Amino acid sequence: MEYFNFFIYSFTSLFIIMNPIGLAPLFYMWTVNTSEREIIYILKRTAVVVVLTLLIFSFFGRYIFDFFGITIDSFKVIGGLLILKISWDMLHAKMSKIKQTQREKEEMSQLEDIAVVPLGIPLLAGPGSITTTIILMEHCKGIWEKLIVVLSIILATGVSILILYISEKIVMALKTSGIYAIVRIMGLILGAISIEIMWSGLVGLMSSSGIVK
């Protein structure tokens, strides 16, 4: 049951922060005149980019911390703030500026291949997703927990890709108001998760400094 609960937590955290439902209208707009074969090709490439990016950071994030002298607790605090910012944007039903800058949006309109940028990075595998995978991996106490994180990355990416594949059906069925409502609910859940991450980091920092025993 403990492993199952950790899987649900890991998968839910990653899936919500990837926010494929919120991206569905955007992806539909980008590919409205694109053939199904080309859409499948784009999404396959995107899936590979997202999974590889998150796996690399999840396994090598610790070495990056050690190189710069960063503790996991301090990273939890700033990472939690970053995720909180994204959740705040979701509550207001808008794309987070952390994920994609205005310049990147303008450049995107001139790109034929959106699989890597901006769809793969930074929309699905953005700072929030990367932060989440690193923190999840740091929670792992053994090989099984690490495998759960890997599985969560693959499944969250897979489900996100599937949602983008049926983006036209989602847009037609839910309309703008329905999509915004779902995004707001997901933002609320993500906000609660970000608070838990920040609190865990603050407690760790206070404990290591002797403020709390």
TrEMBL record:
Pfam families given in the database record: MarC
GO CC, alphabetical: plasma membrane
Topology with respect to the bilayer: Multi-pass membrane protein
Record field: transmembrane: 6-30, 42-65, 114-137, 143-166, 178-199
Name the UniProt record assigns to this protein: UPF0056 membrane protein
InterPro entries listed in its UniProt record: Multi_antbiot-R_MarC (IPR002771)
Family membership: Belongs to the UPF0056 (MarC) family.
Keywords, alphabetical: Cell membrane, Membrane, Transmembrane, Transmembrane helix
Domain of life according to the entry: Archaea
Source species: Methanothermococcus okinawensis
Subcellular location: Cell membrane
Coiled coil (residue ranges): none
PANTHER family: UPF0056 MEMBRANE PROTEIN YHCE (PTHR33508:SF1)
